[in-house]
Specification:
It is built from 5 helices and 7 strands. It is α+β, with helices and mostly antiparallel strands. The strands form 2 sheets. Strands 2-3-1-4 form a 4-stranded antiparallel β-sheet. A hairpin with a 2-residue loop joins β5 (224-227) and β6 (230-233). The protein is rod-shaped. The protein starts with 17 loop residues before the first helix and ends in an 11-residue tail after the last strand. The relative contact order is 0.07.
C-alpha cells in the first residue's frame, strides 16, 4: 500500500511562503515605482516639448522684436530726414517771402500815401494832391508845380458817401521831391490828415508791433527810430526773437 506523504502548509497549492510573499511585494513595489517613473518621464517629456515650443516662440518673438526695432530705426531716420527737409523748406520759404517783401518795399520807396483828403466824383487825383501839398504842407506854388508824378490814384474801392475818404497813393518821379514833401508832414500835426511812406501790408503789421516798443524806449530817454521794419535804439539794431522774429 503506497505511503502517503503529508504536505506542509507552505507546500499546499494556492499558498505562498513568507519569502515568496516578500518577493512579490518587492516586485509590486518595483512595478509601482516603474509606473510612477514612467508617468514622471512622460510628464518630463511633455514639459520638454512645451519648453521647446516656448523657446521657439520666444526666439520667433525675439526675431520679430529685432525686425520691428530695425524698422523703427529706419522710420525714425526717415522722420528725421523729413523733419530736416521741412525745416530747410520753411527756412527757404521764409527767405523767399522776406525777399518778396523787400522787393515790394523797394518798389514803393518813391510812394507817399495821403490820408484824409476829401473825395469827389470825377476828381483828378494828381490835382487834389498838389493842392493839398500847397495848402496844408505849405510848400511854395513854384515848388509844387515842379513836382512830377509817375501816377496818382485812390486806394481801394469806392466807399459810402458818409465814410472816410480813400487814401491817395502818389508815386513821385524823383525820390528827393518825395522826401521833401514827406519832411513837411509835421505841418499836419493836430489835423485829420497824414502823409506816410507806402509799405507792403506785412511791414505795416510789423510797424504796429514796433511803434509801442519805440515809444517805450523814447520815454526812457533813448533815441529810437524805425527804418522800414527795423527798430534802432541809440544806433543799435534792436533784436528780439519773440518780438522781431522776421529778423531771424
Amino acid at each position: 500500500m503506497p505511503s502517503s506523504k503529508r504536505l506542509r502548509p507552505a507546500d499546499s497549492p494556492g499558498t505562498t511562503s513568507p519569502a515568496g510573499k516578500d518577493i512579490v511585494d518587492i516586485l509590486e513595489s518595483i512595478n509601482q515605482q516603474l509606473s510612477s517613473f514612467d508617468a514622471r518621464l512622460s510628464f518630463v517629456e511633455i514639459l520638454h516639448w512645451e519648453f521647446k515650443s516656448l523657446r521657439e516662440s520666444l526666439e520667433f518673438s525675439q526675431q520679430q522684436v529685432e525686425t520691428l526695432a530695425a524698422e523703427n530705426a529706419t522710420l525714425r531716420e526717415s522722420v528725421k530726414c523729413l523733419t530736416d527737409n521741412v525745416t530747410q523748406l520753411n527756412r527757404e520759404n521764409k527767405k523767399i517771402k522776406e525777399t518778396v517783401i523787400d522787393l515790394q518795399a523797394r518798389g514803393m520807396r518813391d510812394n507817399l500815401v495821403f490820408s484824409g483828403i476829401p473825395e469827389a466824383a470825377g476828381e483828378d487825383a494828381e490835382t487834389r494832391v498838389k493842392s493839398f501839398i500847397k495848402t496844408h504842407l505849405k510848400l511854395p506854388e513854384d515848388t509844387v508845380k515842379n513836382i512830377v508824378f509817375d501816377r496818382v490814384h485812390r486806394l481801394g474801392p469806392m466807399r459810402a458817401a458818409a465814410g472816410r475818404p480813400r487814401p491817395i497813393v502818389a508815386k513821385f518821379s524823383h525820390f528827393k521831391q518825395k522826401e521833401h514833401v514827406k519832411s513837411r508832414s509835421r505841418e499836419l500835426k493836430g489835423t485829420d490828415f497824414s502823409v506816410n511812406d507806402q509799405f507792403p501790408k506785412e511791414i505795416l503789421e510789423r510797424h504796429r508791433v514796433l511803434f509801442p516798443i519805440r515809444r517805450g524806449f523814447i520815454q526812457k530817454g533813448s533815441h529810437a527810430v524805425i527804418a522800414v521794419d527795423r527798430l534802432y535804439v541809440d544806433g543799435q539794431l534792436h533784436r528780439d526773437p519773440d518780438i522781431t522774429p522776421w529778423l531771424y
